[in-house]
Amino acid sequence: MKISIIGSGYVGLVSGAGFAEAGHNVVCMDLNDDRIKNLRQGKSPIYEPGLDEMLADNVKRGHLAFTTSLEEAVNHAGALLIAVGTPPQEDGSADLGHVLAVATGIGKILSKPLLVIVKSTVPVGTCDRVRDAIQQELDKRDQQLSFSVASNPEFLAEGGAIKDFMQPNRIVCGVENKHSEALLREMYAPFNRNHEKILFMDVHSSELTKYSANAMLATKISLMNELANIAERVGADIEHVRQGIGSDPRIGYAFIYAGPGYGGSCFPKDVRALSHTAKEYGFEAKILNAVEHVNAHQKTHLFEMLKRGFNDEISGKCIAIWGLSFKPNTDDMREAPSRVLIDALLDAGASIRAHDPEAMDVAMQIYGDKENFSVHTDQYDAATGADALVLVTEWKLYWIPDYEKLAATMRQKVLVDGRNIWPQETALKHGFTCHAIGRPSIG
Ligand SMILES: NC(=O)c1ccc[n+]([C@@H]2O[C@H](COP(=O)([O-])OP(=O)(O)OC[C@H]3O[C@@H](n4cnc5c(N)ncnc54)[C@H](O)[C@@H]3O)[C@@H](O)[C@H]2O)c1
Q1: pTM to 2 decimals?
Q2: Pocket test for ligand 1, best of 5, 30, 80, 151 (most atoms within 8 A of CB)
Q3: What's the pLDDT tens digit per position in 255-270?
Q4: Long-range pairs, 108-112, Cβ under 8 A, ≥24
């Protein structure tokens, strides 16, 4: 099939590479000139394991091309996916400016039947607005063309996005007619071999499914963080509690880790946007608001822990941070808990020595002008001279620290484990004080 994807970010590129890998003929379009120029030279704008190779292979095979021309993309496609950003606005609602601009652009160009598929995460009713925007432009040109709009939200998670896309556990499609259903079936056939994974439903339900999935996952995280806060106060260990409740199959082990709060480009904005939609319909989403509130508070937790550990004397302290991206295997720092920690530490007069395997360039774009912020290509260099080392993101290379090396280079032996992965007894044996989330501090 000839497929075009508008928006070449995390979702657009992974989908583009995935569809091309499966044998479709794909054009990825983006407004950003530099992004497309770099992609044409084989440079991906994002870090996602396996993506660079897959992009390069498919460009070489002639299955994948990049363009800045919407016209080229529209003319190429039998099915066109919109995968542009839907960032949050001040009031929490999703900014649909990019999505609707693409729709208007399509309406201005369209000259043959097309299935327009909205892959961006959008509030209920957006596909209707996309249809109206295209139709308005066709009417202006007095064109009578048949086109359909479908909803096909994306569930990939950064860091494991290729696997999520190539082996999805479900493919949600909201359609308004049988023709769209047939095209989506053909498009996803290579991903639907093992058993039926495509769930067809009405467009509004499909739009709401995406928000509901993220709301459910964010709720699990915030509830677990709330339980960790209770555990800290009553002298219990949330790690024992986690295993105790995860063993119940009705609860399960997934997504019940206490930590420094969720970040990234999806959970925070999607929880807020769904709450905003509910409000527009006259309903107060109390649980969603609490999930957001608990998370915002949790992001201050690591700083509060350091403050307590240093008796409120943070000014002049040197703090090492391991892990800057909002989760491992991505360079994405959007709404990352590390940013709340860094901002609070800089405000309080501390200096920061940071390390991350992939996000240091991104970090320098954000904090490069701050005198007291530095990044280090070696994780132990980052810890040199530090009064405390804070683990914020659990990249694999941080799981088994060389405690002797740390003990020799750090100024004070204080560890803050924001992901509860370091065995506290081992740290204690090497003379460290160890704070963790929802666990008694030791040392
Ligand atoms: N990142 C994820 O993990 C993820 C997962 C599932 C769903 N989503 C959703 O998918 C959508 C895209 O997310 P993303 O993370 O890929 O965003 P992104 O910011 O990485 O990429 C968006 C791209 O769209 C381009 N763009 C903006 N306006 C354009 C226009 N008019 N024409 C062409 N290109 C345009 C931007 O230049 C950018 O390259 C969002 O709605 C997001 O909520 C994201």
Answers
A1: 0.95
A2: 30
A3: 999 999 999 989 999 9
A4: 108/137, 108/141, 109/70, 109/71, 109/74, 109/75, 110/74, 110/134, 110/137, 110/138, 110/143, 110/145, 110/147, 111/75, 111/143, 111/145, 112/145
